[in-house]
Amino acid sequence: EPTAPSTGSKREHWSGQTAFILAAIGSAVGLGNIWRFPGEAYDNGGGAFMIPYLVALITAGIPILFLENAIGHRFRGSAPLAFRRISRRAEGVGWWHVAICFVIGLYYTVIIAWALSYFFFSFDLAWAGDPAGFFNDEFLQLGEVGVGLDFVPGVLIPLAAIWAVAIVVLALGVAHGVEKLNVIGIPLLVATFGVLVVRALMLDGAAQGVEALFTPDFSALTNPDVWIAAYGQVFFSLSLAYGVMLTYASYRERRSNLTGPALVVAFGNSSFSLLAGLGVFATLGFLAAREGVAVADLEGIAGVQLSFVTFPAVIAQMPGGQWFGALFFASLVIAGLTSLISVLQSVSSALQDKFGWTPRRGALTVGLTSATLSMLLFGTTTALYVLDVVDQWANQVGIVVGAVAMIAATLWFGRRGRELARHLTVLSSVKVGRVWLVVVNAVAVLLLYMLVDTTVRLATE
Ligand code: PFF
């Protein structure tokens, strides 16, 4: 058994259950809720999407969240160490998760940096009447250069700032850094975002926007792609198969209720997604009414376009738009930071467990390496292109591989299924048993199917 100093009885821990719950919600609630969920729901059946979404949540999201909680808590380690304790040959599964986190950290930071710049731009509506031109040409300087290595100072400076914050938070450790960030950040996020949504719902045209989002198209239910989108959304949104929830669970006290808090996290995360759906589509409804078009005719209703082109356009046309903009981009920054920290902690924790490093050394190593790489890759004019490709492969193929490998290593080859089921039951408020095991096995089969489907699609695109 590898026993590095930080993994024994002295393993860091959260100050309590609430702190853990807030940190896990912090990881789950991120850009995926604000700019991914509403667009996915709209594109995949609107109101009818709630059916595959709930099915995915119940049949895969919650069971896998339980699994990660059980593994991290039972084997008391970051992903590589926990899997190594299951079987020497499984350590690689953990490093796979860590590698994906490392990659995601590189570009998640960039988006937070953009949002930070836009927070400041909001106050004087820097993009004036041309948000798209401002974003592409002035801000990212994509203009004539296209793909190249020209550094863009407007992006580099906020990027450096975000990395500095991340390194400090990680270096302070689980209880003093990660936990503090979330205990302050999550309530603050709920407050800022709540105000934003209420304001959005009072805009002219809000009702049409919300109606466009929730009008059900039941024919979508027979389309397998809609179901794949639902499972993909649930995995990404609950930060599953990244080793992140597993790592967070490894910092819980030995005697912990595992299933109850996991359910709170899942419920909180989905509630935030719904709230975001309301807010985003109410705002889009306002824009459509302004422009005299139907919501269906709007472009840029998700992702980078939504946040950095469409929203700025709305903000410029809205009374008090500056404040709306500031609240929106502040929300993105907070939601993003708390997710970012979880991904980086997963990497740092793995290195601490492997080499017996202190949190500080882990933070500096991960932070400085990633900061340099992310500035080289994304502080330059190649940004948008790299972002897209990396995002698709890491999030659509990488994590499905990671999820299947995790299940295979614990339940199929490691044969730890019953032990984990028992572990989940002993101290937990919500008891799971055989059914849970059957469901997790079934999920793995489903994921294998998704994997083939997505790989073929991405490779032929
Ligand atoms: N769950 C986050 C979101 O929905 O934005 C994204 C994320 C965070 C994914 C952390 C993976 C992760 F490890």
Give an overview of the whole structure.
- The chain has 461 residues and is an all-alpha fold.
- The chain has helices spanning 17-28, 31-43, 50-75, 79-86, 91-123, 131-139, 153-171, 173-201, 206-214, 224-237, 244-250, 259-291, 303-317, 321-355, 359-378, 383-413, 417-426, 434-460.
- The model is unreliable at 1-8 (pLDDT under 50).
- The site of 4-fluoro-L-phenylalanine has 15 residues, from helix 1, helix 2, helix 10 and helix 14.
Note the topology:
Elements lengths: L16 H12 L2 H13 L6 H26 L3 H8 L4 H33 L7 H9 L13 H19 L1 H29 L4 H9 L9 H14 L6 H7 L8 H33 L11 H15 L3 H35 L3 H20 L4 H31 L3 H10 L7 H27 L1
The protein binds 4-fluoro-L-phenylalanine.
Summed up:
Helix content is 76%, strand content 0%. It has helices at residues 17-28, 31-43, 50-75, 79-86, 91-123, 131-139, 153-171, 173-201, 206-214, 224-237, 244-250, 259-291, 303-317, 321-355, 359-378, 383-413, 417-426, 434-460.
